[in-house]
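Hello forum,

I keep getting stuck at the same step: I have a sequence, I want structure tokens, and every attempt I make locally crashes halfway through. Rather than fight my setup again tonight, could one of you with a working pipeline run this one for me? It's a single chain of 151 residues.
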Amino acid sequence: MIIPNELSLIILAVFCAYAALINFSGNEFIVSVPSHIIGGVAMFVITFFAFMAKMMGGGDAKIMSAYAFWFGLKGIVAFVFYTALFGAVVGLVALYLKKNKPVQSPKDGSWIQRVQAGESAIPYGIPIFIGALLSFLKLGYFSAEYLKSLL
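Reply #2:
Ran it on my machine without issues. Output:
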């Protein structure tokens, strides 16, 4: 349940390359690069304090911040909403696993094994990824019109 720093750096680096490409090509799909920077920095500040308060892990904070650069102020609320929604689903699954122990022989060290043993271990990377994917879809990053504009 560790999110490698390299993954967050790759997500951020690809955004930076993408923003530069869009800026130099004259494509106006990203309305405001400063909006994206503000969104990413705001998410970093919020998740940094959540990490300091032991409300979330450092990897989760870093990857949420990296994704937030992609969404900017326009899409950050949707990203947080989708992430929280699927985080709640994973949390409910964890509670079910903890109470009922339905998996007979979970793999040693897996989050299912840890939850069934009584820990409060939740893989937040999964809801963060789903929240990011749904936000990319909501913002139209996978639309035919958008993909065509990149060529």
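Residues 13 and 66 are 9 Å apart (CA to CA). If your local run keeps crashing, start a new thread with the error log.
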